[in-house]
Specification:
5-stranded parallel sheet; alpha/beta; 45% helix
């Protein structure tokens, strides 16, 4: 069985599920999903990304978004939705929220599970990517397995 640690920022949509579950053909796949609630730590970067992409309405929305403990409940529901969708597609899936130190947790999970790869499924983050501060760029230097960055679909 092929084991993938899947890092996400938002619930998976059906196109995302199909993409990650079919990457390795007919080989059985197991996922450990790590979902980081959106919070204050990257609000400015997200707003800058939205402006750079010409999505001014989204930039305004960033200022109104939940943070801290308020962000945990929607993230937990999104994680549960994503796990259910992966299981319905025939994959094994477990997961958890990432509340602190995402790269340390990722490294630990990769080591404990013997993961074959990490997939970072994210929206474009132009500012973070330019400075190589995005999850995928930073993870490549820590985890010791291949790290694939894919862009998440939207409904």
């Amino acid at each position: 069985m092929f084991t993938t640690v899947l890092m996400i920022e938002k619930p998976l949509v059906s196109d995302d599920v199909e993409m990650v579950t079919t990457l390795h053909g007919d080989e059985p796949v197991s996922f450990v999903v790590l979902m980081q609630p959106r919070g204050d730590q990257d609000r400015l970067l997200r707003a800058l990304d939205d402006v750079a992409l010409g999505e001014l309405e989204e930039a305004v929305h960033e200022a109104q978004e939940r943070s801290g403990d308020e962000a945990l409940q929607p993230a937990q529901l999104g994680l549960e939705h994503s796990l259910r969708a992966l299981r319905e597609a025939g994959a094994e899936a477990v997961g958890q929220l990432v509340e602190k130190h995402p790269l340390d947790l990722l490294t630990k999970i990769v080591s404990e599970t013997g993961a074959d790869e990490v997939i970072v499924l994210t929206a474009p983050h132009l500012v973070e990517e330019f400075f190589h501060r995005d999850w995928a760029s930073r993870a490549r230097h820590k985890v010791g397995v291949p790290v694939l960055k894919l862009f998440a679909h939207t409904e």
